[in-house]
Design goal:
heterotrimer, A mainly alpha (about 110), B mainly alpha (about 120), C mainly alpha (about 170), A: about 110 residues, mainly alpha, about 0% strand, flat, C: about 170 residues, 3 strands
Amino acid sequence: MKIIRWVTGVIIVALFMYFNFFIMELTTLIKLINVLLFSILFVLIRVIIGRTAADRLVAVDILGVLTIGILALLGLFYNESFFMDIGLIWALLSFIATLSFAKILEGRSLDD
Amino acid sequence: MINEIIGTILICAGIAFDFFGVLGLVRLPDVYNRLQAATKCVTFGTAGILLGVLIIQGFNAFGIKCIIGIIFIFLTSPVGAHAISRAAHRAGIKLTGESIVDIYAEDKELKESSTK
Amino acid sequence: MKIKTRSRLVVFILSAFVWFALTNMKNWQEVFVGLLLSLLVSLIAGQFLITTEKTKHLFLRILAFAKYFLRFIWEMIKANFHVAYIVLHPDLPIKPGIVKVKTKLTKDSAKTILCNSITLTPGTMTVDINPDKNEIYIHWIDIVTKDYYNIDENTATISAKFEKLLTEVFE
């Protein structure tokens, strides 16, 4: 059963990589950004199935860090530096959100 | 020219490690293991992407913002992981069935029984 | 110079540096606003950065920190390949558990950096710290020591290499 799931996952990832890098006619940077967007799809799967609240919190935390990478690559593509400003502010806000949600999960109030 | 080649290699390596980290987030069995894989790989991968952008752009406004981003990620990402894992353990989320030993839970029980 | 004044001065220089790195310094108004904001930040939150007397020359500490940083980068690359091996393997070869290690560092900043580097190096993640007894609880994804309750053996395997380097920087 485990090996069947592994093989299915490998086939899905390989199909995506084949379509992305060999079929689609795009510039290289957009192809690389597509890989990051595909990994964000996996993060959203973890947010949806979750099981516990802590799992969802981990996924949202990771989403914040992945977004900085996407914004840096977009800034490189358009050759504009203000994307990185957005990325830094995004990182700051997601860090504060993670800390406060962790505090709520632990059962303490925010001004403790 | 050589800048762009080195930068593109770094960006590709960073994206690959980001992808491995996210795979670990989907495949591994409980919160703590997921947190380990995701934090390590995604921090290193995003730092690799930002370093590649810095090498392609050079030390202009964009590059210096990338340096600040790298320092910020390295300082905040482990702290976030630490906060989430401690909160999960105190909220009562058990380790997976494959795990061997949990000294933290044993010490907590010891402390509670001694204070009563 | 008193400790609080020195700490505020360091915070002022750091925040002014970050402001000048983020803006482009096109005219005098940006410089003026940056200096004003750094002064405000250093007056409000400046006294918490440095709380102890300095013990060593600054250059020696920077040299020791560079040595620590190189070791840290190498351990981090190893950690990433370790995680990639575990994630891509069909059977997921893990053996997780929470163990306990001891530390001799006394300053809060040194303990924070030790915990952060434990989190980013192969297979280990800090869960909680007991400040009274200087003990750190660590989640380990693939336990290699035979006796899990032996604190000295765990310390030698996980944190001794960073602790030796960080002692040179902070103590």
